Fold this protein.
Amino acid sequence: DRVSVELEVMAHLCATEAEAWEARAFDVALHALGQEGDFLHYHLGQWLSTFARAVGRVTTHPLYRAVSETADVFVHHDRDLVDQLLRQLSQSASSPAADSSAQRALTSREV
């Protein structure tokens, strides 16, 4: 149950961020992105790998193993991507050249 609840929280944060970018509410989008990063670092990222390994050890069904491993890889990838976006966006505030790099990173995240 905890996994599904935390993934739903993450989905809500991502939806909030996406809606804010679409509405050009940049402060709201950046705040949501920061919340995503915090949530990935201090919640999901703290225990999901341990959970995925435990599922892999005890399950007899390959689907559960694959789903838990995929969720773990996705969470860590998303954490790294959010960190990169936050770095690039903070740099773009002080450097116009970094702005296009941040825009490319945002576009790649939408894919």
